Amino acid sequence: MQKLKLLYEGKAKKVYETPDADLLIQEFKDDATAFDATKRGTIAGKGVVNNKISARIFELLDTKGVATHFVKLLSDRDMLIKKVKIVPLEVTIRNIVAGGMSKLLDIEEGRRLKTPVLEYHYKEDKLHDPLINDYHIRALELATDAELEEISSSSFTINEILRRFFEEKNLILVDFKLEFGRHKGRILLADEISPDTCRLWDKATNEKLDKDRFRRDLGNVEEAYQEVYRRVLG
Ligand code: UDP
Question: For the whole model, what pTM was predicted?
């Protein structure tokens, strides 16, 4: 499948049209940003790692009955995806307190939550993706009741599947972010699932093996991405 017009360029990915109007190519870049793109850099090899990890996870979810936009891996940095209209929500699931929740509620990072927490953030960079709830979503018609039910139940299912998957790789799934899109009247899981969008801690040492190494200048950023790659695909 051939890349035609560049449709969109985001912080970590480019999306191209293809000869098939229903299909797009998603290309993963090494560029990294944090804190609303006020911090910028590159993580060598990240695009390859995130493309292949995402593909592996989308395939896994597909076998478990979760509908995703993934069609197939095309190359080191490219995957073929179904064209979706993104629902303007970032869905976060948390198993352990970290990052935004630690700050918001002044709770120390690392506290295991009694039950997973689902958060919706309105996907709008200029507002810094504010936390909203299902009443906002319905009132502002960001998604219908049926779509929201599908998105939330699918997010919890994905959490159970991924928690177990990463556990087998000696990784703790602390939290992660999902995006969904509409395709021919259906809701599909979209975007990516990678160390850019998940917090992953080593099970034995709690060492951070995700984008927090870049956000917080912890060093060994490339090594952490490669380590997750080895564990997930090795
Ligand atoms: N996340 C993401 N994109 C964003 C914001 C968050 O992929 O724009 C992921 C992040 O990597 C983490 C989870 O969502 O795994 C929860 O992030 P949080 O709300 O704690 O925000 P952060 O601390 O990253 O600002």
Answer: 0.97
